[in-house]
Design brief:
two-stranded antiparallel ribbon; binds magnesium ion; Beta Polymerase, domain 2; about 10% strand; 20 helices; alpha+beta; 12 strands; binds adenosine-5'-triphosphate; cca-adding enzyme, domain 2; about 425 residues; disordered C terminus; eight-stranded mixed β-sheet; elongated
Length: about 425
């Protein structure tokens, strides 16, 4: 990609002052008044241009992290691999301010920038705005708005791509995915969430390089999968993960089962559809739920083969242990998954005594939701689910102030 700067005035990009959080102006003004450059950059600019509400605002500057800290009373440097500064504007509200970076390595700065097998492990060489623009992932994420002049700086033809709804990597795809294989998951997320089209060469490179996703830390993958599944377009994201051969490396055990058992695919889609509607209705979702769904086929297979010789606890531990080589599920979420699964068989007991026993569990709701989704693809479970539907309604009524329940929408034929 050639280094050619396009500068768009307000009339051409159409971002208004009201689109930007007023606190961002305060930070930007402080930097500029002290002789530094300051731009709003990244996902927020992209989202505004696509007509979506931005999640947060990131600021990029030529001030170093310690210079930024000197300017603001409440600021702290975070990160090691990638140092950024959190500038607090109130006790709980802060903005990320990062120093322009360059990924041009030379002998002097080897310690600050490190690649292992082509993968970026440390990224702390500071640079100019144009260098910063080229080390980002997608063109649509590399647009810089100068709040002072309201001019949008575009080094990578990002505005044009946004207008054409194209998702394109800045660097050559094989290099970009190698530097950071998480970009393959970000491609899936942006394509589904923002309704964009990944260019042919960026897509084909994923098919060739999908296995490299296993070079990423399993902890980071836990978060990235949740971002896709909680984007409100999870079903589309899931289908793309499968199509692009990424699912194979993220959930290898479940993936193998899906090859011979499409019914689990229907189960996973029904569950993600449910999560999508909850997210789009602004309801709470528990991160454990989606992992309980993804790992259920593997757990079921182990139960079928070993339930005579192993306890549920042992089988559960095996699922978590095997999966954690690929995606690491934190302990806190593991215990919710265990509760959801262990309560499943209790929904087959329709006695009154069991109803008062089961509804007393803190994870009753999540377990019921899970059972309900299972009943959507298994007719044998339907009459049980209907029975519990009436019971859980009363439980929900008692706890009405804690939020709505997704089965209220069942009558609206969402499935
Ligand atoms: P969202 O916040 O909606 O998830 P985002 O694009 O803002 O999307 P962030 O993770 O907040 O994502 O990152 C902010 C910006 O940092 C991005 O817009 C992009 O320019 C850059 N960036 C983030 N992750 C990467 C990456 N893996 N490789 C290169 N650049 C990245
Ligand atoms: Mg962001």
């Amino acid at each position: 990609m050639t280094k050619h700067l396009e500068q768009y005035p307000k009339e051409d990009h159409g971002i208004f002052k009201k689109d930007i959080d007023p606190d961002v102006y305060l930070i930007s003004d402080s930097l500029i008044n002290n002789g530094y450059q300051a731009f709003v950059v990244g996902g927020c600019i992209r989202d505004i241009l696509l007509g979506k509400a931005p999640k947060d605002f990131d600021i990029a500057t030529d001030a170093s992290p310690s210079e930024i800290c000197k300017l603001f009373k409440h600021a702290k440097i975070i990160g090691r691999r990638f140092k950024i500064v959190h500038v607090y504007v109130s006790e709980k509200k802060y903005f990320e301010v990062s120093t322009f970076r360059s990924d041009v390595k030379n002998k002097i700065n080897q310690k600050k920038f490190k690649k292992v097998k082509g993968m970026i492990k440390r990224d702390n060489i500071y640079g100019s705005i144009s260098q910063d623009a080229f080390r980002r992932d997608f063109t649509i994420n590399s647009l810089y708005l100068d709040l002072d002049s309201q001019i949008l700086h575009d080094y990578v033809n990002g505005l044009n791509d946004i207008n054409q709804k194209k998702l394109r990597l800045i660097k050559k795809p094989s290099i970009s995915y190698q530097e950071d294989p998480v970009r393959m998951l970000r491609a899936v997320r942006f394509e589904s969430k923002l309704n964009l089209k990944l260019t042919k060469e960026c897509k084909e490179a994923i098919l060739k390089m999908s296995h490299m996703i296993n070079d990423v830390s399993p902890y980071r993958l836990f978060d990235e999968i949740l971002k896709i599944m909680h984007s409100g377009s999870g079903v589309d994201g899931y289908k793309k993960l499968r199509e692009l051969d990424l699912l194979k490396y993220l959930f290898p055990f479940t993936y193998k089962i899906l090859l011979n058992n499409e019914i689990y695919n229907d189960f996973i889609i029904a569950a993600i559809k449910n999560t999508d509607s909850r997210i789009n209705d602004g309801l709470h979702v528990n991160p454990s739920f989606i992992y309980a769904v993804f790992l259920w086929p593997y757990f079921q297979e182990l139960e079928e083969n070993f339930s005579n010789s192993k306890t549920m606890d042992e089988l559960f531990k095996k699922v978590i242990h095997d999966q954690s080589k690929f995606i690491a599920i934190p302990d806190f979420f593991q215990s919710t998954i265990f509760s959801i699964w262990s309560l499943q068989s209790s929904f087959l007991n329709l006695s009154k005594r069991n109803a008062s026993y089961l509804t007393g569990f803190s994870k009753f709701r999540a377990a019921y939701d899970f059972f309900y989704i299972r009943s959507l693809i298994n007719d044998d479970l339907k009459r049980f689910a209907d029975h519990w539907y009436e019971i859980q309604k009363n439980v929900v009524n008692k706890k009405r102030d804690k939020g709505r329940n997704f089965n209220d929408r069942r009558n609206k034929r969402k499935y």
